[in-house]
Amino acid sequence: MKLIFLFLTLTRIIYPIENNIFFKSKLTEQNLTSIEKDFLKSDVLVIGEEHDDKIGHQFKLELIKFLSSKNELILSMEMFETDQQIVLNEYLNGFIDEKTFQNDLKLWANYEDYKPIIEFAKEKKIPVIAANAPRRYVRILSRKGFSELEKLTEESKIYLPSLYMIENFRDKNYEKKILESISAHGKMSEQSLAQMLLAQNLWDASMSEQIYKKKQNKKIIHINGRFHSDNRMGVVYRLEKMGLKVLTISLIQNEKDAKSDLADLVIITSNTPIKQ
Question: Which of 123, 230, 245, 264 is the 20 to 30 Å CA partner of 236?
Answer without folding.
Answer: 123
